[in-house]
Amino acid sequence: MAVPKKRTGHSAQGKRRSNWKATKPTLTTCPNCGQAVLAHTVCTACGTYKGKPVRLKDQAAAAAAEVKEAKKPRKSTKKAKAEAPAEEAPKAEKVKTEEPKVEEAKAEVVEEVKAEEKTEEVKEEASEEKAE
Fold first, then answer.
1. φ, ψ for residue 20, nearest 5 deg
2. Is residue 126 part of a domain?
3. Residue 49 lies in a domain
4. What predicted TM-score, i.e. pTM, was given to this entire model?
């Protein structure tokens, strides 16, 4: 096994470590709320990544908004009427497949909120007992 003959001096050690430095993390601004966020991470303030919601609560809200937008009547023009029958069929299929996902997401959100309320009640009871 290789063993150095002499001990490394302070000067040589310092010269070797001169390029070993910490760098500042790159920060970007969230396109949704404008808060400073680490690059390639989810915004902690609004829960979005690249402008899309990531948290379950936000996903349920976004899916509900998409369903509402799909139901809105659009202005009709001659070109739109000619193209409409071909385009409406796939949209109807998308809405049908997204509705169960929205309901599942809502159910998960409700369960999470209930669990959080229970933990908060337990914490309040514990703090009241400590105060007494």
1. -95, 90
2. yes
3. yes
4. 0.36
Extract long-range pairs of 123-131: CB within 8 Å, 24+ residues apart.
none
Q: Which residue has the higher pLDDT, 128 or 71?
A: 128
Three-state secondary-structure class, residue 62? helix
74 lies in a domain? yes
**Per-residue pLDDT tens digits for 82-131:** 665 555 555 555 545 555 566 777 777 778 888 888 888 888 888 777 77
**Which pLDDT score is estimated for 72?**
64
**Which H helix or E strand runs over 101?**
helix 78-131
**CB neighbours of residue 33 within 10 Å:** 13
Q: Which of 114, 95, 99, 105 is nearest to 60 (CA)?
A: 105
pLDDT at residue 69 greater than cutoff 70? yes
**Is the residue at 91 inside a domain?**
yes
Q: Into how many domains does the chain fold?
A: 1
Contact call for residues 54 and 66 (beta carbons, < 8 A) = no
Domain span at 62: 26-131
User: What backbone torsions phi and psi does residue 25 show, to the nearest 5 degrees?
Assistant: -70, 145
Contact 49, 30 (CB under 8 A): no
